[in-house]
Every structure is written in C-alpha cells, then in structure tokens.
Amino acid sequence: MREMGELWSQLGSLMATIMFVYAMYEQFFPHHLRVYARKYTQKFTRLVYPYIQISFPEFSGERLKRSEAYTAIRTYLSANSSERAQRLKAEVDQGRQDSVVLSMDDNEEITDEFHGVKLWWSANYTLPRTQSFSFYPSSEEKRFLTLTFHRRHRHLITTSYIQHVLNKGRAIAVDNRKLKLYTNNPSNDWYGWKRTKWSHVNFEHPSRFETLAMDPKKKEDIVKDLERFKTGEKYYAKVGKAWKRGYLLYGPPGTGKSSMIAAMANYMNYDVYDLELTAVKENTELRKLLIETSSKSIIVIEDIDCSLDLTGQRKKKKKEKDEDDEEKQKNNPVKKAEEEEKKESKVTLSGLLNFIDGIWSACGGERIIIFTTNFVEKLDPALIRRGRMDKHIEMSYCGYEAFKVLAKNYLEVESHSLFPTIEKLMGETNISPADVAENLMPKSADEDPEICLKSLIKSLEDAKKKAEEKAEKKAKEDMEENEKKELAKDEKVEDTGKSGEEVEENGIH
Ligand SMILES: Nc1ncnc2c1ncn2[C@@H]1O[C@H](COP(=O)(O)OP(=O)(O)OP(=O)(O)O)[C@@H](O)[C@H]1O
Ligand SMILES: [Mg+2]
C-alpha cells in the first residue's frame, strides 16, 4: 500500500516537472525554434510510432455535401459498436419511434479485426476556433472518424479493408432502409436552426404495380425498364452513359400518375424527393437542392406545366386566371402573400434544364427523375427530349383490362355477368381509374359487389350521356359559327358586288 502511495507521488512530481519544462519551453523558446523542434519531433515520432491514421470527415467539399463514405462507415460501426464500445450514444430511430439506435459516442474508440489484423476506429470532432455560446450545434464543429492501424498492414487496409467497410455499411443501410419522402423547404429555412434543405417523413404509400390499373403490356414494359435500370450499372458504365433515367408521366387527372410514382418507389426501394418548384426562388437554389439528394432516389416534379411559366400559352392562361382571382384575393391577405411568393420564383426553363443535366453529370448514380403533367403538349420540347426524359408514359382513361385489375383489388371479383356491359360502356366513354375506384369501393362492410358494379355502370352511363350532350352542344355551336361566317360572306358579296368565291379567295375584310 505504501509502495503504491510512493508511486503516485513520484508520478505526480514527474507530471509537474513535464508541465514546468513545457511552460518554460513555450515561454523562452523563440517561435522559429519551436517550429523546428515540432518538425523534428514529428520525424522522430514517425520513426518510433509505427501506426498510420486515416481520417474520414463528415462533410466534403466546403461542407456542401455529407460524405457518403462517412455515412457508410458510421453505419458499419454502429452495427459493430453496440457490443464493443463502452460509451454509446442513443438516438431514437426516426422510422420507428419506439426503438433506439446505438452508436459509439464522441471520442470513443472500438477495435475491429480484418484477416487477423487488428485496427482501431475512433469518433472525433474539433470545436470551432472561437467559442461562443449557442443553443444550436455550431456550423464549424467538424466531425470525423479516424482509422488507426500498423503501417505494416498499409496495403491490406487501403486496398481491401476500407472497401469492405464501405460495402458492408452500404448493405446494412439498404437492409435497414425505410423509404423516405422528402420535400424541399423554402430557402428562408435553410440557414436557421433547422439547417436542412429537405424535410422528410417515412414514405408509406401502399401503391404497387399489382394494384395499379393499366394496360398489362404497358405495365410489364415499365417494370422491365425499371429492372434493366436497377441492374444496369455495368451496362451504363460500358456505354459511357450516366446511370440515370428520366420518365415523363402524362395524362388526364386521376389516371394514376402519382400512384405510378409511388409504385415505382416501392418497387425500386428508392426514396422520393418531391420537388416543389414554386418554393424555389432561383436557379442556384435548385442546384443546391440537387446536390443534397442521395443516390437510389426518385426526384419528382409534379404538374410541371403549373410550376413554371414554360410557354407563352401557359402565361396567357395564368394571366386570365389572375384577373379572375384578383378581386377575390384583394380580400384575402393569406392568398395574396402566397401568390406574391409564387411570383417571386425566378426558376426559369433554362435553370430547370441545367438542373436536369446537372443530375446527369454533377452527382452520383442511380437516380430517376420523373415529371408529371396533365397537358403534355404544353411542355417545351427541350424539356422532354429523349436523353432528358428517356421514356414517355401515357396514363390514360380506364380500359377494360385496367377495370379488371381494380375489380379484383377492390371487390375480389374476377368475372361477373355485368362485366360485358361495363366493357361495352368503357369502349364508348372515358372514365378515369380514380372514378372507377371510387365507384368500386364498398360504402359499407356488407355491401354486395353487384351494387358497386351497378353504381359503376350508372356512372359510365352518366358520363356517356354528358359526353353526348357536350358533343351535341359543340356541333350546334360549330353550326352557328359556320352560319355566321356564311352570313358575313353574303353581306360582303352584296356590299362589294364580287362573287362568293372571289370574296373567299381574297379573304373577308
Ligand atoms: N391507374 C390506377 N390504378 C389504381 N388506382 C388508381 C389509378 N389511377 C387512379 N387511381 C386511384 O385514384 C386516386 C388518384 O390517383 P392519382 O393521384 O394517382 O392520379 P393522378 O394521375 O396523379 O391525378 P392528378 O393528375 O390529378 O395528379 C388514387 O389514390 C388511386 O386510388
Ligand atoms: Mg397526381
């Protein structure tokens, strides 16, 4: 016991001596001598200290983008650290609020082994040079992971082990993956305490290709296309094409464009970035948003024709609408502010084109971009040319085959005596799958499928009647218009004394 006490006191005096020597050194040694001393100390340390350290910073490239390597390694370490680390950090799993994820705490170290070689990982951070009190994490706080190993294993570690960790980390992330739906925040929120460009929630849309009502051949074609894309990394590299694919979904409202996107995301197991263009103020913001998207994702711009003034046509229509709405908005300050915000948006067609081309060149692979529109003819050809939007998919009104899918899903009915009537009516009139689905949904638990089918027949008959009335009205209007033209022509003939043909040739003035 006395020996222990002596040892402690000796250690204490040794520490005091070291501190004294260091203080003298700092005080009396000129700066340039200290630089020399540090240099040679480092050389000496390198000679006697046989370990190599590699650090993996959290952010790369001026804090623009979270390093993928850092994320993958953290995932790998989290999977290993819960058993090996002594100090752990617990965070609530964003996907399942009832479970926590354990990872190694800051400045904690764990060991790993690879082909019999022992190595050490530690999680570190550096504080900002000037410290000031803040409730929120400092933007200058830099986190990094450090790998330490003996220099004799340099080759094995740099060529195999790091790749092994990255692959494992990515695989674990895919296994644990919960699909997310991201929406972009207005740029005012980008720099506050939230500091995120995208907000996310779990993506739990039930739409799948099996539940999607459309022509089976078309569906099969799309699934094959996606499959080719998913497994095509090597092919894309071989032909020198970026591993991205653009889809344009177009068709009338309620034909399943949004459902198709959800089905694609579920099939591919990709996150969805729902980009709301009206919340983006300018082209540079678009680029920043793009940089923050991750691979294995679908970037969606819905109703592209409504998000931007893409053509003169659209502008005119909006102007007319604005005039209509002006009066209403005068008395509604909230709407007015919203409208003003929309007007502030300065994203241009060329900005959008650069954004898409950026996806193709500026960020990593495995990304899909989807545009949807109700009016394909309104879009600028530059926006939807092949190479940008590689595949154009028309989502059309409900055909008989699509109806059968819905009947099976909603009513569990594969054939029925009313089916031929429905088939005939569907050939004669247009109805959206959304309307069919609405009719087929039983209104009470014990509702007979026949009642639903009859309700659908009624809707089809109504739609047919409406379409006929509309066609009749249109024919009548056309006839009246022609009559007016004829009348105007006759009046001109009487005034000028020329024949009808002559007036026609020269035009009516
Ligand atoms: N092809 C379809 N297959 C299955 N269900 C569909 C289909 N189309 C529409 N529906 C049903 O109708 C609802 C609306 O469809 P969805 O939102 O996908 O249409 P949309 O084409 O995106 O319409 P909009 O152009 O108005 O955005 C869906 O929730 C779904 O229940
Ligand atoms: Mg939609």
From TrEMBL:
Region feature (Disordered): 315-341, 466-509
Spans through the membrane: 7-25
Cofactor(s) annotated in UniProt: Mg(2+)
SUPFAM superfamilies recorded: P-loop containing nucleoside triphosphate hydrolases
Domain annotation AAA+ ATPase: ranges: 243-399
Gene Ontology molecular function: ATP binding; ATP hydrolysis activity
Keywords from the UniProt entry: ATP-binding, Hydrolase, Magnesium, Membrane, Nucleotide-binding, Transmembrane, Transmembrane helix
Record's compositionally biased regions (Basic and acidic residues): 327-341
Pfam families in UniProt: AAA, AAA_assoc, AAA_lid_At3g28540
Reactions this protein catalyses: ATP + H2O = ADP + phosphate + H(+)
One GO BP: response to stress
InterPro entries attached to this UniProt entry: AAA+_ATPase, AAA_N_dom, At3g28540-like_C, ATPase_AAA_core, ATPase_AAA_CS, Mitochondrial_chaperone_BCS1, P-loop_NTPase
Similarity remark: Belongs to the AAA ATPase family. BCS1 subfamily.
Record protein name field: AAA-ATPase ASD, mitochondrial-like
Origin species: Vigna radiata var. radiata (Mung bean)
Lineage of producing organism: Eukaryota, Viridiplantae, Streptophyta, Embryophyta, Tracheophyta
